[in-house]
């Protein structure tokens, strides 16, 4: 009985529709990556891009531009976009909160504050060490947000989590700004505030890509449990889901994704808010499909946003966070209005 009920709930889309959706998203991502590598301050032809990608010759300037600058940048945008999107999907699934997102809930803020403190007191840290500290900051802010939500009158609710996250995010942002001003770090932190992938290099990707791909894979394995939790904790527990364990693992995975992404690309908000909703419209309510689809769509969004940041007003470059906010802010207001009675 339990299995039939869970299978009936999860199968909201036929397998053929889901397969075609994934295939189309993958093709679009590949096209976006190709366009992102080809266009920029200097536009390059297909043959040059192909040779630089698969037959690299470091004696040719055009291939150097692609291999050393654009390729790691575009790959970085794709994996960071995927990471933020999956983190948002996990949080929305765990909390059943349509406003769930690492930026909205203040998780990114903890990473930002720790990065600022590292710049102030430990300026010569290696990237792997900075990533660890960024992850620690994300953990601390997450624990604080959940502690405030649980300790409030009436116990934990998704809306209380959102309010606590917004308050903590504002507090952490103020503290980060204070540290930046006091220690004269405004220029150093400008990149992390606005968000961007222009500084991503191959050594960063050698660490970033394996971590994010493994975490996304583990997150996908939680998909069926998250789908059942969306029906309610009691029903999920009756169907055999260990809800507390799934939620703890899910939050840890979301924090890892946010922490490592902030350490390399800064605080880029709204991806985790917008993308999971779009993924649900495409593949239904099964988180086993929502999570990988969110990864593909998040990668597409950030690759496009990075391309726009580079090409809208050349030779100057806009912050990638601004480009994402053009989509994210109206969507956030739409969702907030939709559930306005609860707010």
UniProtKB/TrEMBL annotation:
It comes from the Bacteria. InterPro entries: ABC_BtuC-like (IPR037294), ABC_transptr_permease_BtuC (IPR000522). It is a multi-pass membrane protein. Its main location: membrane. The chain crosses the membrane at residues 17-41, 74-91, 103-122, 128-151, 163-185, 205-227, 248-275, 287-305, 317-336. Gene3D superfamilies: ABC transporter involved in vitamin B12 uptake, BtuC. The keyword tRNA-binding does not apply. It is found in: Cell membrane. Pfam families: FecCD. PANTHER family: FERRIC ENTEROBACTIN TRANSPORT SYSTEM PERMEASE PROTEIN, SIDEROPHORE TRANSPORT SYSTEM PERMEASE PROTEIN YFIZ-RELATED. This is Iron complex transport system permease protein.
């Amino acid at each position: 009985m339990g299995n039939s009920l869970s299978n009936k709930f999860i199968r909201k889309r036929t397998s053929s529709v889901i397969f075609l959706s994934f295939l189309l998203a993958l093709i679009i991502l590949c096209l976006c990556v190709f366009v992102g590598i080809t266009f920029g301050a200097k536009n390059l032809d297909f043959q040059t891009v192909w040779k630089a990608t698969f037959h690299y010759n470091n004696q040719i300037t055009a291939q150097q531009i692609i291999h050393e600058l654009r390729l790691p940048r575009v790959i970085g945008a794709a994996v960071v976009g995927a990471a933020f999107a999956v983190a948002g999907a996990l949080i929305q699934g765990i909390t059943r909160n349509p406003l769930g997102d690492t930026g909205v809930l203040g998780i990114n803020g903890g990473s930002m504050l720790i990065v600022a403190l590292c710049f102030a007191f430990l300026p010569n840290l290696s990237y792997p060490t900075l990533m660890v500290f960024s992850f620690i900051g994300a953990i601390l802010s997450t624990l604080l947000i959940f502690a405030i939500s649980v300790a409030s009158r009436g116990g934990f609710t998704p809306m209380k989590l959102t309010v606590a996250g917004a308050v903590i995010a504002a507090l952490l942002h103020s503290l980060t700004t204070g540290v930046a001003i006091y220690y004269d770090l405004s220029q150093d932190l400008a990149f992390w505030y606005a968000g961007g992938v222009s500084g991503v290099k191959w050594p960063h990707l050698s660490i970033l890509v394996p971590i994010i791909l493994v975490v996304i894979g583990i997150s996908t394995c939680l998909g069926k449990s998250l789908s059942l939790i969306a029906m309610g904790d009691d029903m999920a527990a009756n169907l055999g889901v260990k809800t507390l364990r799934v939620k703890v693992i899910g939050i840890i995975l979301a924090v890892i994704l946010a922490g490592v992404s902030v350490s390399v690309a800064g605080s880029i908000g709204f991806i985790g808010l917008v993308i999971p909703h779009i993924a649900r419209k495409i593949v239904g309510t099964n988180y086993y499909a929502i999570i990988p689809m969110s990864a593909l769509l998040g990668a597409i969004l950030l690759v496009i946003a990075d391309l726009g940041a580079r090409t809208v007003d050349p030779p100057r470059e806009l912050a990638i966070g601004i480009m994402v906010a053009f989509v994210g802010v109206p969507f956030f207001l739409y969702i907030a209005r939709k559930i306005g009675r609860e707010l």
